[in-house]
Amino acid sequence: MLSLLFCDKHLYLFAFFFNYILMAATTWFSAPYEATLRTDYNTPIEYFSNTISGFTIESAIMFSSGYIIGKLTLSYFKSLFDQHTHIIEQEKTMKEKMDILDSMAEIYDHVNLIDFVNNTETSLRDPEQKKHGIDLSAQTHTLMYQTIKNQVMPDQTEDFKNFTNIKTIRSRLSQKKLISADFIDVVTGWFRAQYITVDQTLDGIPNVVIFTARNVDDEKKREEHLIRISMTDEMTRLFNRRCFDEDLKEFRKGELSENFVLFSIDVNGLKKVNDTKGHSAGDELIKGAADCIALSVGNKGKAYRTGGDEFMAIVNTEDPESMRGTIKEKASEWHGMYSDEITMSIGYASLKKNPGASVDELERAADADMYAEKEKYYKEHGIDRRRH
Fold first, then answer.
1. pLDDT by residue (tens digit) across 19-28?
2. Which of 17, 168, 175, 315 has the most crowded Cβ, counting Cβ within 10 A?
3. Domain region containing 355
């Protein structure tokens, strides 16, 4: 009985054979006495043989039954132990995850745990961490959404509503660790909303996710600053060639406005200034030209430095000729440390005068007009263009 209790095979075999030996020995020693009391046995050997045969059959039956019971008991206890070990491991894993989530809660402005197995929502920032029920048959958004939605910029409300729809989150997050989107809070600026998978099925369908919201306004400002630097010419602080090409890509996608005008501008005599007065004088001339263009364009468009002494401007104006005159007027008023004057050849092409033209066709037309101005400048100043 003890061997069955402890599920020890070796103890069971020892107990059985030890018990059988003791039983055989006691029967042998008691046979002479028992034979004298019985009339159906003539000798002690006859009594011993008959009795030990019955005991042997009983022992064989008991041994087989006990062995089977022991195997079944051992298998049952083993499955219980395995289940217990698995439960402990799951609890340990879940505790580790919850510890991580608790530490994450300190980082984020809002952190909610959404359990799709038990259909509950829990705010990890709440000291009580009270669970709220979720009814997926009638409910499309969490309590956290109700808290944040009124702070989202009006033009982003619909996108935020679609992103936070809990009826579609499991399919959108399937086979993924997280999904995120950035929105603007009307008070604090940019924030990032994220859904992060905590537990999932074997098929990759999330069972438990956390919904977080974190202010990223400073991060966005740094990102915008880096983009602005990458799109800005270091010397003149105008937009650079890369920005010009990116803007042209956008204009190619859509329809140009009726007042769309593209300017092509080139500084006259820059090479001569560089050769005779040095590159500092040449840089001064480029900066002066950039200032004149930027002041003339103002808030009507964007000005770009696209090469050494080459500039472009994209503006919306009904009177491009007047803007060309303004650039020349400001250039005539300019004076530097190394040079007393600055002149530019300015060409432009407007959609109004070139109806149906593409932005690339307008760029070529503006370049052609600029080169015509350049030719005029050469003739007026008696410069041999071929020699130049």
1. 889 989 998 9
2. 315
3. 231-380
Pick out the chain residues at pLDDT < 70.
1-7, 97-107, 384-388
CA–CA distance, 83 with 70 (Å, rounded to integer): 20
What does the alpha-carbon distance between residue 112 and residue 212 come to, in Å, rounded to a whole number? 7
Q: What is the pLDDT, as a whole number, of residue 5?
A: 64
Q: In what order do the strands lie in the sheet with 301-305?
A: 301-305, 310-316, 260-267, 344-350
* Of 73, 96, 119, the domain-final residue: 96
Say what the pTM is: 0.53
DSSP helix, strand, coil percent of the chain (3-state; round to 5): 55, 20, 25
- Statement to judge: residues 359 and 296 lie in one domain: yes
155 phi and psi angles, rounded to 5 deg: -75, -5
Phi and psi at residue 64, to the nearest 5°: -65, -45
CA–CA separation, 307 vs 95, rounded Å?
61
CA distance 387 to 384: 5
Q: What is the pLDDT of residues 323-352, one digit of tens each?
A: 999 999 999 999 999 998 999 999 999 999
Task: Check whether residue 361 and residue 241 sit in a common domain.
Answer: yes
CATH assignment at residue 270: 3.30.70.270
Provide the β-strand partners of residue 4: none
